[in-house]
């Protein structure tokens, strides 16, 4: 029997999805369609509210609006295809389509992590050096931070996809996941994936952990500074400006670290699906609520936006 090399075939892959139970396909479709719509509407409202209110034209909200845009792009890479597959019998994805999905998934996901780091730096400067805030976090520097975030993320994705495109895929072409993620695709390869694994555990470590360490360092500095504030009200006010950001960081990085920083030998299909759903679907959906419910200025801007839309 001839073993087909799927890297040079147009037959592509089959995405197993979240569940293979045929009775669950339509209920899951309804659940994730609603979650996707909430994600789109919520993040679009955040972007519109920030751009329509001059009080929100600050570095913190500049990064927040870009984070919301990246969340829209991030979910658009994964969720629409997943929704189509819920109602499809074949659940197929072409080889090129799989690589494209993998590329943009990593690019937008890593840009998200760098934007979270940029927001941590913004809070660090605002709390620890308030007198120099306008100088340090000027519009040009904020734009540069955004461009650097996007550039690093896309170069990282390009390197991964180029290495994976050189692999051969033999025998099974069923991806035990709901999208083309790195680990499930590498599991199908009959080539030597040691170089991919080394890259995954080193270069990925640098790309993902660097912004995470930046966030940790920023918040350590913030905590030290806030603890020196004599007033309890002052301490609470300083910490309250960081609460939303910290919540998103924990949700995002908790699931990302669980999925990617383990050897391929201990890969678990079910656990990885649940963890991946957290940062691909749940976190982008919750971000607008997290950033708006605890932020009086944002809530006021959203009310004004709603009145404009109704009028």
How do the helices and strands line up, and which of them pair or pack?
Layout: E1 13-15, H1 25-52, H2 59-86, E2 92-93, H3 95-128, H4 133-136, H5 139-165, E3 174-175, H6 182-188, H7 194-227, H8 232-260, H9 269-293, H10 296-310
Parallel strand pairs: 1-3
Antiparallel strand pairs: 1-2
Major sheet summary line: 3 strands, mixed
- For the largest sheet, list the strands in their spatial order: 2-1-3
Helix content: over 70%
Give the overall shape. Answer: globular
Provide the residue-averaged pLDDT.
84
Strand content: under 5%
> Helical segment tally?
10
Rg of Cα set:
21 Å
DSSP strand tally: 3
Order of helices and strands: EHHEHHHEHHHHH
Structural class: mainly alpha
Uncertain stretches of 5 or more adjacent residues: 1-10
* Separation of the first and last Cα atoms: 68 Å
Structure commentary:
This protein has 311 residues and is mainly alpha-helical. The chain has helices spanning 25-52, 59-86, 95-128, 133-136, 139-165, 182-188, 194-227, 232-260, 269-293, 296-310; strands spanning 13-15, 92-93, 174-175. The protein has a three-stranded mixed sheet with strand order 2-1-3. Helix 1 (25-52) runs antiparallel to helix 2, helix 2 (59-86) runs antiparallel to helix 3 (95-128) and helix 3 packs antiparallel against helix 8 (232-260). The radius of gyration is 21 Å and the shape is globular. The N and C termini lie far apart (68 Å). Residues 1-10 have low confidence and may be disordered.
């Amino acid at each position: 029997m001839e073993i087909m090399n799927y890297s040079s075939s147009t037959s592509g892959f089959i995405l197993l999805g979240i569940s293979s139970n045929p009775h669950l396909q339509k209920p899951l479709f309804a659940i994730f369609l609603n979650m996707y719509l909430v994600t789109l509407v919520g993040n679009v409202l955040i972007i519109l509210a920030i751009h329509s209110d001059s009080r929100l034209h600050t570095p913190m909200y500049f990064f927040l609006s870009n984070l919301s845009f990246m969340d829209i792009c991030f979910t658009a890479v994964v969720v629409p295809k997943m929704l189509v597959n819920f109602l499809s019998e074949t659940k197929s994805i072409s080889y090129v389509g799989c690589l494209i999905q993998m590329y943009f998934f990593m690019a937008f996901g890593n840009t998200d992590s760098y934007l979270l780091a940029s927001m941590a730096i913004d809070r660090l400067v605002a709390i620890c050096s308030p007198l120099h805030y306008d100088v340090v976090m000027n519009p040009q520097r904020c734009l540069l931070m955004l461009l650097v975030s996007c550039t690093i993320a896309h170069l990282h994705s390009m390197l991964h996809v180029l290495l994976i495109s050189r692999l051969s895929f033999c025998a099974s072409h069923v991806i035990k996941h709901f999208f083309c993620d790195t680990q499930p695709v590498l599991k199908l390869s009959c080539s030597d994936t040691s170089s991919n694994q080394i890259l995954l555990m080193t270069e990925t470590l640098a790309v993902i952990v660097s912004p995470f360490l930046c966030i940790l360092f920023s918040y350590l500095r913030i905590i030290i500074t806030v603890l020196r504030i004599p007033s309890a009200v002052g301490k609470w006010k300083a910490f309250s400006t960081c609460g939303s950001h910290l919540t998103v960081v924990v949700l995002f990085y908790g699931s990302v670290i669980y999925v990617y920083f383990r050897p391929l030998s201990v890969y678990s299909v079910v656990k990885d699906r649940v963890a991946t759903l957290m940062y691909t679907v749940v976190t982008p959906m919750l971000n607008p609520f997290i950033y708006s419910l605890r932020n009086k200025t944002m809530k006021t801007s959203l009310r004004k936006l709603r009145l404009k839309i109704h009028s």
